[in-house]
Amino acid sequence: MTEKREEKMELSHEPVPGYRRIFFIAITIGALYLGLILYKTLL
Amino acid sequence: MIDPVPPALIFIIGALIVPFFKGKLKSAYLLFLPVLGFVNLISIPEGNNWIVGFLDYNLVLGRVDRLSLIFGYIFHLISFIAILYSLHVKDDLQHVAGLVYAGSALGVVFAGDFLSFFVFWEMLTVASIFLIWARRTKASLDAGYRYLLVHAAGGLCLLAGIVIHVNQTGSIEFGYMGLNGLASYLIFFGFGLNCAWPVLHSWLTDAYPEATITGTIFLSAFTTKCAVYALARVFPGTEALIWIGAIMTGFPIFYAVIENDLRRVLAYSLVNQVGFMVCGIGIGTHLAINGAVAHAFNDILFKALLFMSMGAVMYRTGKINGTDLGGLYRTMPLTCIFCMVGAASISAFPLFSGFVSKSMVMDAAAGGHMRGIWFLLLFASAGVFHHAGIKIPFFAFFSHDSGMRPKEAPLHMLIAMGIAAFLCIFIGSFPGPLYSLLPYPVNYVPYTAPHVLGQTQLLFFSALAFTLLLLSGIYPGEMRCVNLDADWFYRKGARLFYRVADRSFNWVNSVCDRVFVKGLAGSLGRLSRDLTARIALLILVSFWILRGVSGKKLEMKKTNFYNDILEGTLPVGIGAGLAAVFIILIFVLT
After folding, report:
1. Would you place residue A1 in the very low, low, confident or very high pLDDT band (cuts 50, 70, 90)?
2. With an 8 Å Cβ cutoff, is A15 touching chain B?
3. pTM, to two decimals
4. Which B residues in the span 323-352 are in contact with A, Cβ-Cβ below 8 Å?
5. B407-438 pLDDT, tens per residue?
6. What is the DSSP string of B409-470?
7. Are strands B478-479 and A10-11 parallel, antiparallel or unpaired?
8. ipTM value > 0.85
9. Is the Cβ of B527 closer than 8 Å to some Cβ of chain A?
10. d(CA B252, CA B269)
11. A13 CB near a chain B CB, below 8 Å?
């Protein structure tokens, strides 16, 4: 027997509260860290 | 002992006999061919073998050296794995096309001259098209035609380059050339198209996911790797390749992240990995060439493993989109584990195969003080983990529960995936045997504390980025849509060409139509139509005026006579009378 399933048009990823802030904090720290490394490398 | 034969022949001639076997005998025969081919290969002495005279040239069907040998080994190995994986297939077309395709790839890597190289290169294209068409869907048929058009264009460029090169040098030897003139640029472009260079790559991401489940395993192994081999043979150390390769490693990541079809994600990942090889060939040092070749060897295995795991999912569920899949680890645990081994290998996790080869190219870039290139490759390494290392297993086997509970993959598929997974771990843990096969002596140690720590850091931060992107809702959702990619340029370019052609060529065409067809030709046509009537009127009008006919009556007589002649309603008597007048006039005047 073929089971009929609804095919999703989009599989979106719902945000979990609080994680967007964590994401931006992590990005900021990462960018600063990379910037520091680049600065020390190029000098 | 039987003398060895050209490696390509075993596969190509062997393929023609496949339809005569049935059942288990066919399976045994199919598996026997790559084993026989491998035994044949190891018995071929190094140097030029099977030199055949053709016109004024010598064709070399077996140039055996360390570069061709390592590609020969891996092509036999992957053929065995792919055939084992496809034993359930009843369609002879797929088996024959797969074997001819593998044989053509062997022909390419062992060709010692441009003519036999070109013949096998084109056979590679033809055989691979049938692996795409064999799926027998409209999408695969269309993709196959587009693939054929693109490769025909690339093949013509290659042929033109070869003809000019042979004309200029008088030599057909297939060896180092470098970029130094029109012939070399045409050949370079021909190789580059099969290598899926940026903007020229859309044939790969378009066609490979439309091929049959088993066909994709073959496709992922041969066409691009033959092009990598050709570049390593003819254009090592060409600086343009460094940037082309570096761009190849970077841009597919963005497309792969937004792609819903998981086999298409792997196709983008294939372009990305070939980028590392192209970059290595461009750098051209012994370490870089070794890295490029080692990575080609490893990529064939882990990419086939990933395609096999997605093929098994597709075989059991009939689905391949991220929107449809998820939660399959419950009922397909072994396929899931094999997929994760492939994912770890492509991501270059320590103890997995990608780690011992990708880093050779990156070290070569760093050793050559190419900071920009090194950063691009580093970014690409993180991106690979993002889309191929995490996305593929996550959306297929975990993520949301699709509700599907398919059976585990068939035994022969599991064994094929198991062999590939074992080799990925073995090579990653003990790279010595692989290094001993490389073209140049290897003095490279992958397992140093900085390298292991650095790579682990990179991968874990990449995993952190994926997790945070997903949990914060920033990660793009999987959508059912068609991503045109560089095909956009072809489609828009073709439309632009049509408009330019419409406005320029069609304008010239309409002017010519007005002047020559409707103008000049029309006048001539009219003249030839009523010439007799005009001549006859000339005589008769004089005759009528002499008889005193004038004014409206004369005009009426002229019109009636003219119409009668044109419509052919002239009484026979008048016609005969006119004929007599003509004859008399001719007699008098001559």
Report:
1. very low
2. yes
3. 0.84
4. 323-324
5. 999 999 999 999 999 999 999 999 999 999 99
6. PPHHHHHHHHHHHHHHHHHHH--HHHHHHSSS--------HHHHHHHHHHHHHHHHHHHHHH
7. antiparallel
8. no
9. no
10. 7
11. yes
